[in-house]
Design a protein that fits this description.
Distance between the termini of chain B: 28 Å
Order of helices and strands of chain B: HHHHEHHEEEH
Radius of gyration of chain A: 22 Å
Strand order of the largest sheet of chain A: 6-5-9-7-8
Oligomer: heterodimer
Helix content of chain B: 40-55%
Number of helices of chain A: 17
Largest sheet of chain B: 4 strands, mixed
Order of helices and strands of chain A: HHHHEHHEHEHEHHEEHEEHHEHHHH
Shape of chain B: elongated
Structural class of chain B: alpha+beta
Structural class of chain A: alpha/beta
Largest interface: A-B, 57 and 48 residues
Strand order of the largest sheet of chain B: 2-1-3-4
Shape of chain A: globular
Number of strands of chain B: 4
Largest sheet of chain A: 5 strands, mixed
CATH superfamily of the largest domain in chain B: Glutaredoxin
Number of helices of chain B: 7
CATH architecture of the largest domain in chain B: 3-Layer(aba) Sandwich
Number of strands of chain A: 9
Strand content of chain B: 5-15%
CATH class of the largest domain in chain B: Alpha Beta
């Protein structure tokens, strides 16, 4: 446990430059500044490591970096997505608070590989404590001569800045995030062109999640194979999982990919006295819910969770015990997507409102027999018909909640009250 | 309209972006003038920010109304932003929000008459392992209970 992003979490001053360097931090960056590590070698190690995007999409990081036209003339950018806001997810907050230098080093390395001399870390506007910690770390890094123009006469320039959000879940979508840095509404861009070709200010840009960047320095220090071997095939390394909801010890755990879900549940202190596991959302609110039986069979890696019928997402494991009213839980999630839809695409803007209003009417005791079919029809019309993934994210929980817990929804419609005696 | 101090703070943000891209600083600029104006924006302030950053006023208006952290009517001196999303809900956020409303004599979305405090229900604040939680100013308060809420409210002056 705690081998990469969290390796210093139990030390004194985990976020300080001294702590970071004492555990091997900036060794890779110093090697690069001395001209001892080539871009090609770094890309090879990253590909070997099996590191996949930790923000939720799981796209291989090494491959993403190789898409950048690094030899193209002109400005290029590296952007870190610290706009953490997927319900159930709170891992990047802890990386920024307790290991900010790993993010800085990871971004600097990315800048070198893709010949991008400027980076922005987009931190959600509410994360003021993480922002101050990250800024402190930035100051330390500049003070130690690790960032700036022509660092140590290496001809390598890397300047890193923080951009703060202002409260919009959609800005976690990478092109909405770029719009937001440009000082606009956070509405996703149509793709193609992809950011690697036309990104921030129209220049080639690569965007990675905080945890992805923070994993890079150790992968390069210890080798891609070392990282891959921590996990299982197709899910290299370890990963942070935020375990929340009805457990005794909700917390972030950095564990090897492939760890059985039941082990993770035990790490989180298990369920509360006398309660039984009812359902699990394994990867954050946008991923399909699983009934206890399916969840207990899965391991925490991409393929196993996929096989169980959901997705690893951002590794945000929401535990629901037998006191949970699934109608209420879905209504809450539906309200979230309704609130956060950016309004650009009609199916999502209108559909999320429909879904929420129909669920609300069921909760208010005015549900109709045809409402479940209506919900399924609306979600089906959103999926695949929007510019970004928020539409799919809003729709998928609806289908899975109804499929696995249909009886509860039918009961609520028929009786105007929850089947579960005590909820929440 | 915008104080010299605010202009200084805005300029720090402008310096982070390429020349000619000063409108990238609009989100922070709006926050800075909002804070100076007691926590909410006015149309005149939004226009002033747009003019200061030499960007179309409509774009500043769009930003000010798209993002959740800007207020367009007066708020309390302290805004309690209470998360009611899934992990907080599973841990009793709804009951705590009702408790807070009763205790303060104020509904969510409103400011109390004396102007000391307002309560807002917000979506996930990204501190789910500390659910239920809320934000007041820059600070997060986690693992809330009725007793803990009492202590926090006692501390608000």
């Amino acid at each position: 446990m705690n081998k990469v992003c969290f390796k210093n979490i139990n030390k004194d001053n985990p976020s300080s430059l001294a702590t970071y360097e004492a555990s091997g931090g900036y060794k890779v960056w110093r090697k690069i500044l001395k001209g001892e590590l080539s871009q090609g070698k770094i890309l090879d190690e990253l590909k070997t490591s099996g590191l996949r995007g930790r923000g939720g999409a799981g796209f291989p990081t090494g491959l993403k970096w190789s898409f950048m036209p690094r030899n193209q003339e002109g400005q290029k950018y590296v952007v870190c997505n610290s706009d953490e806001g997927e319900p159930g997810t709170c891992k990047d907050r802890d990386i920024l608070r307790f290991n900010p230098h790993a993010v800085i080093e990871g971004m600097a390395i990315a800048g070198y590989v893709m010949k991008a001399s400027v980076g922005y870390n987009y931190i959600r506007g509410e994360f003021m404590e993480p922002y101050y910690r990250f800024e402190e770390a930035l100051n330390e890094a500049y003070g130690a001569g690790l960032l700036g123009e022509d660092i140590n006469d290496s001809k390598i320039t890397f300047n890193l800045y923080t951009h703060l959000g202002a409260g919009a879940y959609i800005c976690g979508e990478e092109t909405a995030l770029l719009e937001s840095i440009e000082g606009k509404k956070g509405q996703p861009r149509f793709k193609p062109p992809f950011p690697a070709n036309v990104g921030l200010y129209g220049k080639p840009t690569t965007i990675n999640n905080t945890e992805s960047f923070a994993s890079v320095p150790d992968i390069l220090a210890k080798g891609g194979q070392w990282f891959a071997d921590l996990g299982v095939p197709n899910s290299g390394g370890c990963k942070l999982f935020s375990v929340t909801g009805h457990v005794n010890n909700p917390a972030n755990f950095e564990i090897p990919m492939g760890t059985p879900f039941s082990d993770l549940l035990e790490m989180a202190g298990g369920l509360r006295e006398g309660r039984k596991l009812k359902a699990v959302i394994p990867g954050g609110s946008s991923t399909p819910v699983l009934p206890a039986k399916a969840a207990l069979k899965m391991n925490m890696d991409y393929d196993s969770i996929d096989k169980a019928g959901s997705m690893l997402g951002a590794g945000s494991v929401i535990i629901m015990d037998d006191t949970t009213c699934m109608v209420k839980a879905l209504t809450r999630l539906a309200h979230f997507y309704y609130d956060e839809s950016c309004g650009q695409c009609t199916p999502c803007r209108e559909g999320t409102g429909w879904i929420y209003r129909v669920l609300k009417r069921i909760m208010d005791g005015h549900g109709k027999n045809e409402d479940l079919d209506l919900l399924l029809s609306v979600q089906d019309k959103i999926i695949g018909n929007t510019i970004c993934a928020l539409g799919d994210a809003a729709a998928m929980p609806v289908e899975s909640f109804i499929r696995h817990f249909r009886k509860e929804f039918e009961h609520y419609i028929k009786n105007g009250e929850s089947m579960v005696a005590k909820d929440g | 309209m915008i104080s010299d101090q605010a202009k200084k703070e805005i300029d720090i943000w402008v310096a982070k972006y390429p020349t000619g891209r000063q409108s990238s600083a609009v989100m922070e600029a709006l926050k800075i003038v909002q804070a100076e104006n007691g926590g909410s924006l006015t149309n005149d302030l939004i226009k002033a920010v747009a003019d200061y950053l030499d960007m179309p006023r409509i774009n500043a208006q769009e930003v000010a109304t798209f993002y959740e952290n800007y207020n367009h009517k007066p708020v309390g001196k302290h805004v309690i932003r209470f998360c009611h999303n899934i992990s907080c809900m599973l841990n009793g956020a709804d009951d705590l929000i009702s408790y807070l409303e009763t205790k303060l004599g104020v509904k969510t979305g409103e400011a109390r008459k004396d102007g000391l405090v307002s309560v807002k229900k917000v979506e996930c604040l990204g501190a789910c392992v500390g659910a239920p939680m809320c934000q007041i100013g820059d600070k997060y308060f986690e693992n809330l209970t009725e007793q803990r809420i009492d202590e926090i409210l006692d501390g608000l002056k």
